[in-house]
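Researcher: I'd like a structural prediction for the single chain below. Treat it as a standalone chain; there are no partners to consider.
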Amino acid sequence: MSYSVGQVSAFAGVTVRTLHHYDKAGLLSPGDRSHAGYRLYSEADLVRLQQILFYRELGFPLDEIAAIFKDPQVNPLERLRARQWQLSEEIARLQRLAEVAERAIEVQETGVPLTPQERFEVFGEITFDLSYATEAELKWAHSDGQREAMARAAAHTKADWRRLMGEAAAWRAELLAVFDEGEPSNGERAMDLAEEHRLHISRWFTSCPPDMHRRIADDFVADPRAFALVIPPSQQRPGLAAYTRKAVHANAGRHAVGRTDLEEDR
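Model: Treating it as a single chain, here is the predicted structure.
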């Protein structure tokens, strides 16, 4: 029994144009023609069409489908296994994207409901980078400290943010002064400022022991977006991020020495 293009299009759920394209591509050329020259598809052609649609549903490109049909040396099972692996990778990637979207929503929902003018008054040049905040949320999603920081940030009032950012601005001005005056990063002034920053995080967001503070400071060097949350780009100097990181590490080491001395005194 033979079927016209229109009939095949109707029960296969593909357009006539697609069937013509498969014919031109050499994927599916009808085995017969009517007296008027119209394409006629046989039962074998329909079986081949089902195979093409199956491979297309799995995402195979047309040239790869053609290779499977044309080359007897091609092992369809191997192609299917390779495609299964690709699909598994794609599913994992999409799952990660879905998680990123979910975290981005959570980050957005913890934002401070301020007008643009109020936001500038409170935050000044410090800008909220959604991509960095979302990545940080993903990175530390299972951390008690991250959950506490997000919860406390969400609970801050406008007045809280004004006080918080005021403290940060005063600290930032002093850090810039210390850096510009050439004070060593492991000197008392620099380490004291590192300690102020650590206590600032503990006071407003979450408990920040020295080891955690080290990791935060490492991000200052590894990711410019992290350091921009502390020092806006317009106020940054070459080497300032690395200087701040060294001061934090030196201060953390000072704490470690202090703990050792206490243990020896016991």
